[in-house]
């Protein structure tokens, strides 16, 4: 996977594969489930924030490679 995706990230190619909006949907399911069983998913929550930042920036249809565009200060 990394061999295929790394060159795309380096070229800033974020054309749709598995879109940000689908990641947000799946991450929301995971976080909702974790709340129901009392588990903390700290990294999942951090990734959700990054995905939501990309959505705010209008990249909800971009591939998850768009994570390379998230500013560290968010």
TrEMBL record:
Keywords: Oxidoreductase. Gene3D superfamilies: N-(1-d-carboxylethyl)-l-norvaline Dehydrogenase, domain 2. One of its GO terms (molecular function) is 2-hydroxy-3-oxopropionate reductase activity. Its EC number is 1.1.1.60. InterPro entries: 6-PGluconate_DH-like_C_sf (IPR008927), 6PGD_dom2 (IPR013328), HIBADH-like_NADP-bd (IPR029154). Residues 1-70 form the 3-hydroxyisobutyrate dehydrogenase-like NAD-binding domain. It holds the Pfam family NAD_binding_11. It is an enzyme of class 1 (oxidoreductase). This is 2-hydroxy-3-oxopropionate reductase.
């Amino acid at each position: 996977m990394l061999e295929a995706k790394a060159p795309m990230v380096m070229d800033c190619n974020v054309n749709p594969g598995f879109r940000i909006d689908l990641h947000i949907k799946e991450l929301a399911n995971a976080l909702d489930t974790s709340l129901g069983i009392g588990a903390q998913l700290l990294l999942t929550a951090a990734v959700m924030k990054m995905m939501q930042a990309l959505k705010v920036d209008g990249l909800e249809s971009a591939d998850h490679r768009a994570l390379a565009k998230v500013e560290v200060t968010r």
